[in-house]
Design goal:
Structural class: mainly beta
Strand content: over 45%
Distance between the termini: 66 Å
Largest sheet: 7 strands, mixed
Helix content: under 10%
Length: about 325
């Protein structure tokens, strides 16, 4: 026996069978493997009339619609019809670690509003167009929810995503901002990575082009050009993103780029380096990854600035230069 399902303006389930229609009391929930279910809070006599269990299990796929409402598109099986949609109206409230949390309000028969949180589990990642996406964990293939607008970096060097919603009843527009808590890493000349906090699996790896191959410590910025969205598409943006921080030396004379993420939260990007003493009154550090692959970034220190910046390191480098005068450069490992 097949039913037709929908959701009303108050996020309540609508059930249709033949010519009968009902709005049963209950609530939506997300179970293991991100399966959507609806728990019925109705007496057994009512359920028998509609031949419904106390828990309705839905089969389908997750997506975000154009208004950023959470949508579950039903697949055809013996109990439901292809093409029916359960549109849950609300807001994304959390994008932390390996979850996407969505808040919906429901109205009970007594006229009271109830807030409910639906959490999807999965992995955050960047797609081939540098957009933020969430792969919803499933038994077979994941459902991919893509945030199609261009993301930005806020004053605390964190990724933020802004979207607009329209209240379908009042037609009022609102702006919502999602903040992804994490930290940056630079492991390649053509990619930078943003790793989400408290997650082993979620990170964004972006394809970029370096804009500042020659970096000067006083300015404390590394700049990249990045394209976000489909090319030849109005959503595409080609822009410059800047990572701001403070340069320091580690014990092995490699360089550290320390970024302030706000709230006394500092994280450091560590680099190995090839050091060149050949320029007069300058020491040039050519940065390399942990695998000793060139990153395309050279940090230039004048002798005068380096002596003020870190006198102990300056003396150490002078000693190193004298000991290695016959070499064109010195490799400093991690």
């Amino acid at each position: 026996m097949k039913y037709r399902y929908a959701v009303d303006g108050y996020n309540r389930l609508i059930v249709k069978r033949n010519r009968k229609k009902a709005v049963p009391r209950g609530e939506f929930s997300v179970e293991k493997n991100n399966r959507l279910v609806y728990w019925l809070n109705e007496p057994s006599a009512w359920r028998r009339e509609f031949s419904l269990p106390n828990k309705i299990k839905f089969a389908g796929n997750w997506k975000l619609n154009a208004n950023y409402d959470l949508e579950f598109q039903l697949q055809e099986n013996k109990g439901q019809c292809q093409g029916d949609k359960l549109i849950l109206k609300g807001n994304i409230i959390s994008v932390q670690a390996d979850t996407l949390a969505f808040a919906v309000q429901t109205l009970d028969r007594g006229g009271l509003l109830h807030l409910q949180i639906l959490k999807l589990s999965g992995v955050w990642q960047a797609d081939v167009y540098n957009r933020l996406s969430f792969s919803v964990e499933r038994k077979t293939f994941p459902d991919v929810i893509t945030l199609k607008n261009a993301w930005q970096i806020n004053e605390n060097q964190k990724i933020i995503y802004t979207y607009e919603k329209i209240n379908l009843k009042t037609r009022v527009r609102s702006s919502e901002v999602l903040t992804f808590e994490g930290f940056w890493q630079i492991d390649s000349a053509k990619r930078i990575t943003y790793i989400l906090q408290r997650s082993l699996n979620s990170f964004f790896s972006f394809r970029v082009q370096l804009e500042t191959p020659n970096v000067y410590p006083k300015k404390g910025a590394i700049k990249y050009r990045i394209g976000i969205g489909l090319s030849k598409n109005k959503l595409y943006q080609d822009k410059i993103i800047s990572l701001y921080g403070t340069w320091k030396f580690n014990r092995k004379l490699g360089l550290v780029f320390e970024i302030d993420y706000g709230g006394a939260n500092f994280e450091a990007i560590e680099f190995g380096a090839d050091i060149d003493f050949s320029k007069k009154d300058k020491v040039i550090f050519s940065l390399v990854s942990r695998e000793r692959q060139p990153l395309g970034i050279s940090v230039s220190f004048s002798h005068r600035f380096l002596e003020k910046f870190d006198a102990e390191t300056f003396l150490h480098l002078k000693s190193l230069k004298d000991e290695s005068a016959i070499e064109a450069g010195v490799k400093i490992p991690f």
